[in-house]
Amino acid sequence: MPRDKAGQFFGSGHTNNWAVTCTSQFWFNYRHVANTLSVYRSVKRLGIPDSHIVLMLADDMACNHRNPKPATVFSHKNMELNVYGDDVEVDYRGYEVTVENFLRVLTGRLPPSTPRSKRLLSDDRSNILIYLTGHGGNGFLKFQDSEEISNVELADAFEQMWQKRRYNELLFIIDTCQGASMYERFYSPNLMALASSQVGEDSLSHQPDLAIGVHLMDRYTFYLLEFLEDIHPASTTNMNDLFKVCPKSQCVSTPGHRTDLFLRDPGSVLITDFFGSVRKVEITMETINLTSPVEQVEDK
Amino acid sequence: VSLSVVLLQGQHAALAIAAVVIIVGVPLWWRTTETYRAWLPVTQINELAKLQLQLSVDVEVVFARGTLTPEQQKKVPLTQTQDEEHMVDEDTALRYRYETRYRTATIMEEDALNQPTAAEADLSLHTLSESPCGSVVVYVIPEASSLLPEVVEVYIGQRRTAMLRIGAQMRVGRTLKQLLAHLEPRIQQVLQVMSFSHSDITAALSDRVRPSPGNKESLADSMRAFKSSPGYEITFSLLNPDPKSHRLHWDIESAVQNYIQPLLTKLAPVANFSIDSQILYYAMLGVNPRYDSSLSAYTLSADSLAHVINPVEARLGSNAASSNPVLNFLLYVPDAHHSPLYIHDHKKQKVHSNAFHSPRWGGIMVYNVNDFYGPDPVFPMDINISMAKVMGVFLAQLRLLLGVQSSATPPGFVVASCGSAGLADWELDRLMWSRTVENVATATTTITSLAQLLDQIGNIVINDNIAQQVSSTVTSLQLAVAELEAGNLGFALQYSKEAILASERAFFDPSLLHLLYFPDDQKFAIYIPLFLPMCVPILLSLLKMLSEARQRRKEKQAKRD
Q1: Domain with A201 in it: what CATH number?
Q2: Sign of dihedral through CA atoms A246, A247, A250, A255?
Q3: Closest Cβ opposite residue A164 in set B360, B396, B507
Q4: Which residues of B fall within a CB distance of 8 Å from A140?
Q5: pTM
Q6: B73-115: per-residue pLDDT in tens?
Q7: Does residue A131 fall inside a structural domain?
Q8: Which listed residue (A32, A52, A177, A251) is catalytic?
Q9: A156/B207 touch (CB, cutoff 8 Å), yes or no
């Protein structure tokens, strides 16, 4: 019996989780920050601690002087859910969110003075979730309204992560226009990707709020958040359910996904393998008797 | 001035400009726009890509009095070498070389073996000589010896010696060769426990060779221990959720000094350790324990343990200055309303240590203090935590998390306790073998993939410092492999550590990011507006000169005709 349990516990092969999220700039892109914060919130709620999350927000929406409700970022026009909360820890903010910094975080090529909270200290047993949102096109994602990251650069960065064994499995989610083009060029093993729209399609935003004056969230992430709110740390929902989130009727665009590089069957991958942080645990059977130097007590 | 002279001057001018552009301009442009790429020892790196490791172990087999017949004794001392070859994959080959020296015991060793128990014999044998790092000494004692109890065949000591009982029927009428062949399998078993086994080494090579999804146990083992790193941070935290009831005192400094520091000092060749401690108040476990009326205590089931760690981890904090892996050891004293709190395993049995650990993270122990309440408790109560008991658990967890594997010993084997340092010498050797192999494997993978990357992307600048790090990695790797072959484990570990540090520094150098992706169409877009307007007049005038020259030749020919 115990041995079966051990097999079940170690089935996924990972021991820790990381999440990296990102976004773009300006007040009228409020929805991108709301997207990122809602994923951040879900991931924290499901157990990943701040020390394992690298949150990049290119602009400050909560304290923006155009925000009629300061210190809040809402995801729905009824203002039910303040995704900003009161324990947000932003690691890269404002002008620090650049393509260079993003790639440095992924590949680990940061200057030695970078503090721990700004690094992705993953190892070969880490499952990493990367969520990107903003404005994108066929083969690129816009950063800061002045530069772009291309799908080739992203694929190369993931390959370098693989070479250095910086991840066990990686889930890549992107919510931009023509998002599927960003995962076309991946070639490293153990990557799974989801996008909110196919090449040639635009990802649309969900609904505007007349009081705040901007669109609050994008459709795909809105339905993704709704899906994730039903997940709790012990749930057994798997990736196939995630692929069904936001069908064309709700999203207007066609979400896509890519699993050919992933070794395990998506049906056997739990949502909490990436979004949560379920720790493997072993009972400590041995102790060392320190008062008298004779026996090593073993209960097996 | 006549028209032809002007024309001639014009032609000379065009030719001169063209000459300057081609002879001076183009090379100048080429040199100033080429990316600086320092030379890398690519051939040596490619050689290292095909890793052929030889691990040499020095074994000494000492025959005590009464184990050898006089004729067998004449053939001793004798040295034998045994090779075991393994092909892990097409790029990695392993050879284990065991150089065994057989000899008889000296008089002083006989005296030492005359002690009443094996543990005392072990102790006095060590006062005689110190075995070098990585070697193993096996003492073969007679069948009738009283050193080991009846059922025990092998005793593994605290340093690097083992005692092996010779089988009864092996004495009479057999040649030395047959005796050695008989002892061979058991000596092999001893070596697998005390030095390394093939599965240990293949697990250490996991960076190069993705382990086959085979043995669940070995997978769990490889996932539990931290990977090789130059340093580790250890944090001891005391969690007091109920300061109103309990005023806890723990003498962590002296506990660390007495119980943990000896182990860390012994592990100094392997890694640096830094220790800190903290006390957290009002830190709850995050899981509600269930009341069990049969035990009149609260219990935490094994399944709920996985959810205990995350809420606590958010409050733990860490040393921002280093990127070393952190081992967290938490001591949780349950609040007065939920005391006593016991951890149950999967069989619903109480766990003796009342502790659990998480792979590559650390351990948590629940310390019940309700025994300290007198008949009339007055809160808040002053409680002194018994650090010996706590450190006993943490030390065991620390050993597991660092990979000091107490692997399943074969039947008939007895392993001595690990001694005051918390680590036997042979356990240290085991760790050193696997760490050295792991470091060499990781460093070679890093350096080969870096070389490939720099080769593929022609635009990346390779600074001198990177080239120097790469060269020093290659040198250290070659030295490490050589020392492994020679059997000098200490030096091999040293060089392998240097190799890893240099290779990581080279691979993760911040300067290797620029010009990562520079598509050709962008290059054209930059150069065309600069060069095209300049080249067009030169080309046109050259063409014009050519056509005029051709015309003149035609005229000359026509004249001749």
Answers
A1: 3.40.50.1460
A2: positive
A3: B507
A4: none
A5: 0.84
A6: 888 788 888 888 888 888 888 899 999 998 888 888 888 888 8
A7: yes
A8: A177
A9: no
